[in-house]
Amino acid sequence: MDKKDNIFGKTLKEVQELCRFEGLPPFTAKQICSWLYSKNAHSFDEMTNISITNRAQLSEKYSIERIKPTSVSKSKDGTKKYLFPMGDNRFIEAAMIPDGERKTLCLSSQAGCKMACTFCMTGKQGFQSNLSSGEILSQFTEIEEAGDITNIVYMGMGEPMDNIDPVLTSLEILTSEYAYAMSPKRITVSTIGVIPSMKRFLDESKCHLAISIHSPFAEERTRLMPVEKKYPIHDIVDLLKSYDFSGQRRVSFEYIMFDRVNDDASHSSALARLLTDLNTRINLIAFHQIPGSLLKGSPREKMEIFQSQLNKNGIITTIRKSRGQDIEAACGLLSTKERLK
Predict the structure, then answer these.
(1) Residue 290 has what pLDDT?
(2) 331 is an active site residue
């Protein structure tokens, strides 16, 4: 028997095309999207304002499949890490980070990652597959805090710009009035700088952008992040300078600090020069030790000095608080060792 086409994760336009193909009334598409997203329906039987005949027709060919987590770990700081099975011995993780009334969801866009950054557990795991828009959205809808999430960051497993079509589809559904109607100002997508996809993201989305930089020097950044060879950080910054970030949309830079590698005054000065004339900010991130890596995190005192140097150079710089380290949910630690069992 042929596998049914899953409609969870389809945009209004895609559902409209489906309805035209099935000969259903045009208004049915908005009804279906309302049930899928606003009302969180898990079956066509729940769509009571659609005729029984049309519901039966839809359920014959289509399904509503969401991926549910199989386990959850809870940190002493309140952070939760959810494990989602993707089939074929593939898994992903998503982290929910509470902070007062704010609840931030850090979601994944791929199972594993191709980019092989030397400091990242996901990169050490290698690449298994891209996620569909429905698999991305399941991390938002199927956790215990579904309905309470205030902010979303695409900073989990994978490189979002390496899976750009499903990522853009998921962003449309998250921010559109016909679906979840989240403000784009509450969503940030992180990238190491895949330039063609990053340009599409900037042109087709209004969400915030975060760039993983980690060094202003090409040779050093290449050692940390092999992608520098293909997409140099200077080209990334040049592209960003052609966009306007003076309004509500933000671009920021993520900078993991490694002791005696990228944490001295020459780095802060070069960063300030590189980012001149770009309306941005820098988030400094503590490195969390991973197996097999000789890198060590910079001491807190060094991070504060580095922060002060950047602030004096006119770049707003903050030190991000580490969360969920005890359950391996902190930055760079997401990995799915379960797939190897």
Answers:
(1) 83
(2) yes
